[in-house]
Amino acid sequence: MARGSELHAWLSRCAPGSHQRLHECAPYRHLLHYAQNELGVVCIEFSHSDEKNFFERAVPVFAIPAHKPGAHFPFNLLHDLRHYAAGDFVPYCFAEDGSLLPLSKEEYTAITCLDESDATWFSDVFIPNRLGHGFVEEMLGCICGAHAFEELGITDEAQVRQAMRSIEFEGIVPAGILRHERFRGEVRELLVNRYLRYHVLDRRQGRARYEAWMRQPATALTWLRFCNVFNDPKAYEANQQASLERILEYREAFNPLRALIARTLNFHLRVTALSLAFAREVLLQDGAALLGGEELGALVAKLARDVDALHDRFIQLKAMSQRVQGCEPTAENLQGLRMAREFQRDAAGLREDLRRLHADARMPARLQAMHARVLSFYDAEHVDMSGVEEDIEACLARSRALAGL
């Protein structure tokens, strides 16, 4: 229980300059403590090409962006942290008989793109306003969002948020910005080649993610059981603001026991359950042509039982995490420590079973493709990147037309 912060050690090693400077700021420390104590954030440099760009709002596993300068890592993490705290939206609702009904692609894309816009505001405006524009720009080597909008005469955070929603979410650069004398140089570069580009990419990624959800209806139920996800748009929207308030008000110091329990919930139980559910769904969809009915039925039933068993452990450990006080070796804290370690061993055994399944040449190709993956539930969606520049120019042209320019 005396083990130090893994996140602090990783950031100190990979981004020593920016992390050390940031760590002097109380808001930054509070956010990192929340990430560890409550979310169980894990940072991994993946080797498989399909996992290098992994990102899921409801799975706090941060894929270390090896292609970016190390000094940027803390800022990338803060952006994703906002997503992790807010959770994700699952595009299915329940019918009266309990079956799942898909929501429209347009509704799902709109909901998730608005979340992306607000996360950009958090990392590019809210955080720099509290850490200092000059400091953030020194670390990143470019103008920050808060400073850019200040140059345009917009300093109120709520007004900046609305302007960013107009650009990134709606794809419209407001008329007042287009007409402003400071809309040039690095300010224009940021708003057009970052935020307006995000508008184009967010929508493409949202549509690709929707198609991935549609390929995995049964797995969606497991996400609803294990993850911080919603399938009610109003509940999801309410949690956006509530989660922001939670992380901003968080004042608890780093607690190694709470962090261990949170990592166990996130990386060991949640990730393993999603991997089992994905394997079960692939077998249900593709297994009949490859396996005998009796063997297939037994495999599918075992995977379902394993997910249920992990869910029981997940509920138990989550309840235990609420009872942990400090990190002294009290009877309750020691019970939480033993439970976390026991459940990690249970999950490791199930992952070993999965590895054998992935290595079985009789299994469907989609399952065999997960062999040697860390996240064997992640069926990476590939986004069409053709025509991005043309779409950005079209957004600019529409913005100018609306502004009468």
Describe the structure.
The protein has 405 residues and is mainly α. The chain has a domain of 139 residues. Helix content is 67%, strand content 4%. It contains 17 helices and six strands. The strands form three sheets. The chain has a two-stranded parallel ribbon. Strands 3-6 form a two-stranded parallel ribbon. The longest helix has 31 residues. The radius of gyration is 22 Å and the shape is globular. The mean pLDDT is 91.
Helix and strand topology:
Elements: H1 6-14, H2 16-22, H3 26-39, E1 42-44, E2 61-63, H4 73-86, E3 88-89, E4 92-94, E5 100-102, H5 105-131, H6 133-140, H7 145-151, H8 157-169, H9 175-179, H10 185-214, H11 217-226, E6 229-230, H12 233-249, H13 256-286, H14 293-323, H15 331-359, H16 365-368, H17 388-402
Parallel strand pairs: 1-2, 3-6
Antiparallel strand pairs: 4-5
Helix content: 55-70%
Indicate the multimeric state.
single chain
- Largest sheet, if any? 2 strands, parallel
Strand order of the largest sheet: 1-2
| Poorly predicted segments | none
- Strand content is under 5%
Helical/strand content category: mainly alpha
From the alpha carbons, calculate the radius of gyration and give it in angstroms. Answer: 22 Å
Number of strands: 6
Order of secondary-structure elements:
HHHEEHEEEHHHHHHHEHHHHHH
Q: How many angstroms separate the termini?
A: 63 Å
The global form is globular
Q: Mean pLDDT, as a whole number?
A: 91
Q: Please, how many helices? A: 17
